[in-house]
Amino acid sequence: MGHLRILSEADVRSVLDTTIALDLARRTLIDQAAGHSLLSSPSAMTLDARPVGGPKFKFKAAAVGHLKASGIRLLSHPGPTAMNTNYCAVYDHAGYQISGLVSDHWLSRLRTAAFGAVSVQALVNPGPLVVALFGTGGIASEIAPMLAQALDVKELRITSRQMKNMDAFIAAQAATVRIPMRAEPDGRKAVEGADLVVTLTESPSPLVFGGTLKPGAVVCSMGSYNEVDFPVLAEAGRLIVDDVDFAAEMGDGGAWIEQGHLTRETFQARVDALVCEVLSGAKPGRRTPSDRIVALIQGMAIGDVAFAAHALQEGARRDLGRTVPLD
Predict the structure, then answer these.
(1) What per-residue confidence (pLDDT) applies to 239?
(2) What homologous superfamily does CATH list for 2-108+302-320?
(3) Whole-angstrom Cα distance, residue 82 to residue 85?
(4) 112-300 in CATH: which number?
(5) What pLDDT, in 10s, does the model give residues 86-97?
(6) Using CA atoms, how far apart are residues 221 and 298, in angstroms rounded to an integer?
(7) Domain definitions of the chain by residue range
(8) Reduced DSSP (H G I as helix, E B as strand, rest coil) percent helix, strand, coil of the chain, to 5
(9) How far apart are CA 123 and CA 278, in angstroms?
């Protein structure tokens, strides 16, 4: 008889940190490039139970070969406790059965930030770098120390709609982010001269515009809507994504298609490489130092499953969480 291990957010936080997250993201992307970490087909499935009094569900499945586990990310929304009830169900390949449920709220923020940081690390020119970060939310709070650790950063510009949010963000990050940071409320000034621009917002309208990126700059869009104006893509030498299908549905890719700038087919043809192909060396991230690069990195279920599987393995080693017998 087996058992099911359930890890809370506190358990997850005790077994994952910035260094582990960056390493997990890098290994999982290289594993994906080798064909050992796989997304389900389709990569996401939705169930709208609102007509019968329930929430809206989303299910995203993946297999992570290097951790010998598969899993399903279980999401429900909207709802007052939805963010605290999202879990990743993990199946151990050795036992052919479900092995655990892992709280996915903070874990998802951490893996999104880690995959973004590892992706841009493979795309930017050598430092020291000026970085502009749009957003002061949960994922931005996770990615700031990762950028400081993964890159040679000489200045981190923080920009948001409200000055108080920028000041609070910088104060909160000061203890762990040992690089110069400053608030820049003007988005155009934040982008001016920046080597890397990261957008992590829920903005429905563009924040980065054509004619503002310097040669050689990378813009990494990680939001759900439209953060990068289409002319930026026209000026870019390279378009890198983490998952072509998802990039065509959400974020800037989905917005450009909806706006009529591209069809799904022309968008897919415009993609130069997957980020996993860049990290593995199968395809180049940039061809010249002056290439402007647009990267659409929104996160994949393989990241959630990898982080959840690692947390379960470490949780079992430390005897964390609660266990339930499986008859």
Answers:
(1) 98
(2) ornithine cyclodeaminase, domain 1 (3.30.1780.10)
(3) 5
(4) 3.40.50.720
(5) 899 999 998 788
(6) 8
(7) 2-108+302-320, 112-300
(8) 40, 25, 35
(9) 8
